[in-house]
Amino acid sequence: MRFFSLLALPLLATAAAPAQGPAVHVTGWARATVPGQTGSAAYLSIHNGQRTADRLLAVATPAAAKATIHTTSTAGGVVRMRAAGPLPVGAGQMVEMKPGGMHVMLTGLKAPLRVGQQLPLTLRFQRGGLVRTSVPISLEGGGGGHRH
């Protein structure tokens, strides 16, 4: 009997432990398109619930041939976009992508992104691994007039 009690202790300790949520939580939205439009953007809020910093290395979606992290800047009245390297996300911090700033550029769309649908995304983090999510497709979703 004592033997079985000793075996049960680790199980009880595990059962009493609080459930762990996802280390990285992602929300956001993607801009709707019109027929024939081959590019768009997704704007994400990434919360790193880990105790250590992480980096977003890549984004993928079955809806587009390519999904890349881009930044937008304006200098002398000229708007420029450029690919960004891995995106750092500090421990316990949140990074927010917004129109006119950082975003996920979607190129080679396989079909129009329609309002009310969801865009499936897979994000690859250096420490957090793969995070699969989907974001709603809307016309504005939260601001700005940034277009691709």
CATH architecture: Sandwich
What's the main sheet like?
10 strands, mixed
Beta strand count: 10
Average pLDDT score: 84
Morphology call: globular
Count helical runs: 1
Span between N and C termini? 69 Å
Determine the CATH superfamily: PCu(A)C copper chaperone
- The CATH topology turns out to be Immunoglobulin-like
- CATH class (first level) name: Mainly Beta
Which strand-content bin applies to the residues? Answer: over 45%
Q: How many structural domains are formed by the residues? A: 1
Describe the secondary structure blueprint for this structure.
Elements: H1 2-16, E1 24-31, E2 39-48, E3 54-60, E4 64-75, E5 78-83, E6 87-89, E7 94-96, E8 103-109, E9 118-125, E10 129-138
Parallel strand pairs: 1-10
Antiparallel strand pairs: 1-2, 2-7, 2-8, 3-6, 3-9, 4-5, 4-8, 9-10
Tell me about this structure.
This protein has 148 residues and is mainly beta. It has one domain (19-138): Immunoglobulin-like. It contains 1 helix and 10 strands. Strands 1, 2, 3, 4, 5, 6, 7, 8, 9 and 10 form a 10-stranded mixed β-sheet that branches. Strand 9 (118-125) and strand 10 form a beta hairpin. The termini are far apart. Residues 4-21 and 142-148 have low confidence and may be disordered. InterPro entries: LpqE-like (IPR007410), Lxx211020-like (IPR058248), PCuAC_sf (IPR036182).
